[in-house]
Amino acid sequence: MTRLSGITPSGHVHLGNHLGAIRRWAAEGRADDLYFVSDLHAMTSAHNPARLRGLAREQLAVLVAAGVPEESVFVQSDLVRELGALNWVMECTATYGEAARMIQFKEKAKGRSGVRLSLLTYPSLMVADILLQGASEVPVGEDQRQHVELARALARRFNTTYGEVFTVPRAVLPQAGARVRDLSDPSRKMSKSTRDAAGIVFVLDKPDAIERKVRRAVTDGESTVEYAPDTRPGAANLLEILAACKEITPEKAAADCSSYGALKDAVTEAVVETLRPIRERAGALLDDGGELDRLRRAGADRAIARGEHRLRSALRLIGAC
Ligand code: TYM
């Protein structure tokens, strides 16, 4: 069994990415799993090349600093030739209807002009990410499930039409409550692409920034603390964050706090202590640079070597080369 998942550097890594994904990759990841920075995916809407390069580097440092096995990490664009080739094979296996049906495409393209063609075809690149490496399990949030379903469909279609090459992957979804919401607006999830950063705790935020953001988090007018996600979403989000950091239930977290002041103090402390070692180690990796470059090169070599034979077989079977 090989697990594979990715994170897109469309902004700074935040607490939601950490608690919902990276932390699990670190806890469950084995050396032959693959966790990568999907920088090619960050080019599907307006982007700044220099900023993107910096964010990709930062995310790689955060993955390593958070404890994702060093042997498992790589940066997607280091495989651009292999992935570009397999993406073409996948575009020739998928239909236009399948791509146009993707909910993320519909949501992101809605009402916009100048939508990049890559926003439509990006699921095909994601399929290539998964199939090139022969991944059998893909841990993702609900938002990415449809893309993994497409990978299943295309792997099966290719295998039956041209010959057996690809492992048919399946999505592995996190347990309920793994979705972290924006601290200023608990009706939306914490997201890298939100413009206003007031409600987003970044993994590399300093303690005083974390404290400020938690202190300003939206709650409600009640004087007691209770875990009620449907009626008190702001408080529930803070309780879920506290519970995730301390590995207790949100109900237990609520019972431990007598007021919102006490809850916010507890959340600040728990988040600061959860993120501190990651910020320090990532900072050291980014300052030194040499170690990160070495890890990046080794990761790329390993990922290319792993996928090479599948790409060659797929190209041969489909009639190229
Ligand atoms: P991305 O960068 O949007 O998200 C990375 C991971 O973080 C999770 N996540 C959250 N979890 C909890 N609360 C939140 N507020 C929150 N926001 C994000 C996501 O569910 C995800 O697990 N297209 C993918 C990256 C990708 C990929 C792949 C994944 C590229 N190729 C191949 C799997 C396989 C993406 O943009 O993830």
TrEMBL record:
InterPro entries: aa-tRNA-synth_Ic, Rossmann-like_a/b/a_fold, Trp-tRNA-ligase, Trp-tRNA_synthetase. It is an enzyme of class 6 (ligase). Pfam families: tRNA-synt_1b. SUPFAM superfamilies: Nucleotidylyl transferase (SSF52374). GO terms for biological process: tryptophanyl-tRNA aminoacylation. CDD domains: TrpRS_core (cd00806). One of its GO terms (molecular function) is tryptophan-tRNA ligase activity. Keywords: Aminoacyl-tRNA synthetase, ATP-binding, Ligase, Nucleotide-binding, Protein biosynthesis. Its EC number is 6.1.1.2. NCBIfam families: trpS. Belongs to the class-I aminoacyl-tRNA synthetase family. PANTHER family: TRYPTOPHAN--TRNA LIGASE, MITOCHONDRIAL. This is Tryptophan--tRNA ligase. It comes from Amycolatopsis antarctica. The gene is trpS.
